[in-house]
């Protein structure tokens, strides 16, 4: 009997996959995101034109069979630029998310587990950062450290960890109230071991869901900085800069600023759905 | 009164932290901040003069002390490098427009978020609930400035209902010009609010007293209006307080989209003239505004809900 159940019970990953398939949000999110990421990664192959080649004789052309998204004021193919911009913006968003993700996780775990004075001090630091209007702080930091990619990385490393630290701290705090954490320490395990081997695996799903939201927020921020002229610098294609350049033609050539924005929304909805789906599958809500 | 003292103490601690952070903003610059502001072509003499003016030649401890004293005793947050006017004065002239925009955006946010959350909560897991729950998913993915452009396209260009930017001359015009920008900010602000508010409402709808009211045969509408909404109003208010920083930052970006001459416009024009003290001042004033608003919301929430004062 026992062998029969052992054979029938699928491996954890397969079980997870089966549950995942039943979450429409997860399936739709994974599909959208895979599409956007694949197209971005394969930009040199799938983009129909070179994103920086100008053709002044064919500027501001409407969408057509040869230029699906039309051309911009310099005659560059908008579809190719949208595809190449995805490569830049997604890469920056993912890279910029790494340091704050790790910092937020560590700070949240330490603050929640240690409690007492350490928790109080970290809490006040978090409160201070939360008081700053997010975009104002990011803009000021990027202004001080220099526009472009590096400014964005520094700005995020400095302020991006706040929200995940808050959530992870609350989760850790709740776990610590359960008996098993005390039991693990009482059983002779060291503090670092309790945190790394026992608490971390329990907060990790929550952290991964948060990471999806963080990447989404950073992508929107990168695009917003590009729009404000503080992000990715021309001629490198970037969704924000494309929208800002296209704003001049909003009244007559609506597709120029609208279509790059649609690419942002598609990617963002993918990330958002993936996060929601993962939360459903891991039963975090 | 202990809750009052504790809120006040927390606000003062945060305010101090904010000032220190803003002070450090110029000091995180790799290399010489004076050179960063003036650019690579600047002469040594002009760089030295700027270092002197910004007090960068003093020891860092002394710099921080004189900055703190200046901020807290004289409300002195620096002088513009371009016009030499006090930064606070510059900000105050732009403040009313931004404040009006923020106020209108809060009003729109409430008008969008409360009905949608209520519909979702009262139709839990039904089709209406699912439709409302999609809204935050899409809303979070849309850059606010792009939403602004799309609204301009629809209501300004295609339908010609509303002005597309700037602020008109006649007395009724400012409000009309602020409708689209405020709506843009509100659309960006609503998604997290709808989500949390729906959760809050579901909790209240499940509460024992609501079951009792139903048992007492009170009408469903009167239960919702007179009891459920009243009980959900307090958490909604504190949610707005928590999100006010986000709201303010978003507003400044949206000012750029609609060419509104508020604090955001001042921020971006100061960036292009590399007027660092003004950028620093706006960061400080906006964060201080958030601290004050959060404190006021905390006190308001405590006044409305005696349970908080009892803790």
Quaternary structure state of the chains depicted: heterodimer
Biggest beta sheet attributes of chain B: none
> How many strands, what sense, and barrel or not for the largest sheet of chain A?
none
Which stretches of chain B are low in confidence, meaning pLDDT under 50 for 5 or more residues running?
none
- CATH level-1 class of chain A: Mainly Alpha
Q: Strand portion of chain B, in percent?
A: under 5%
Structure explained in plain terms:
The complex is a heterodimer of chains A (285) and B (311). With 285 residues, chain A is mostly helical. Chain A has 13 helices and no strands. Chain A has helices spanning 2-8, 12-21, 24-41, 43-46, 78-114, 116-131, 134-145, 149-159, 162-176, 179-186, 191-227, 239-246, 255-281. Chain A is elongated, with a radius of gyration of 23 Å. With 311 residues, chain B is an all-alpha fold. Chain B has two domains: 2-74, no CATH class; 87-310, MetI-like (MetI-like fold, Orthogonal Bundle), CATH 1.10.3720.10. Chain B has 14 helices and no strands. Chains A and B meet through helix 6, helix 7, helix 11 and helix 13 of A and helix 1, helix 6, helix 7, helix 11 and helix 12 of B.
Summarize the SSE layout with pairings.
The complex is a heterodimer of chains A (285) and B (311).
Chain A: H1 2-8, H2 12-21, H3 24-41, H4 43-46, H5 78-114, H6 116-131, H7 134-145, H8 149-159, H9 162-176, H10 179-186, H11 191-227, H12 239-246, H13 255-281
Helix pairs in contact in A: 3-5, 3-13, 5-6, 5-8, 5-9, 5-11, 6-9, 7-8, 9-11, 11-12, 11-13, 12-13
Chain B: H1 2-27, H2 33-38, H3 44-54, H4 60-74, H5 87-122, H6 127-141, H7 144-158, H8 173-206, H9 208-215, H10 220-242, H11 244-257, H12 263-272, H13 276-304, H14 306-310
Helix pairs in contact in B: 1-4, 1-13, 5-6, 5-8, 5-11, 5-13, 6-8, 7-8, 7-11, 8-10, 8-11, 10-13, 11-12, 11-13, 12-13
What's a quick, concise take on this entry?
Chain A has 285 residues and is mostly helical. Chain A has helices at 2-8, 12-21, 24-41, 43-46, 78-114, 116-131, 134-145, 149-159, 162-176, 179-186, 191-227, 239-246, 255-281. Chain A is 74% helix and 0% strand.
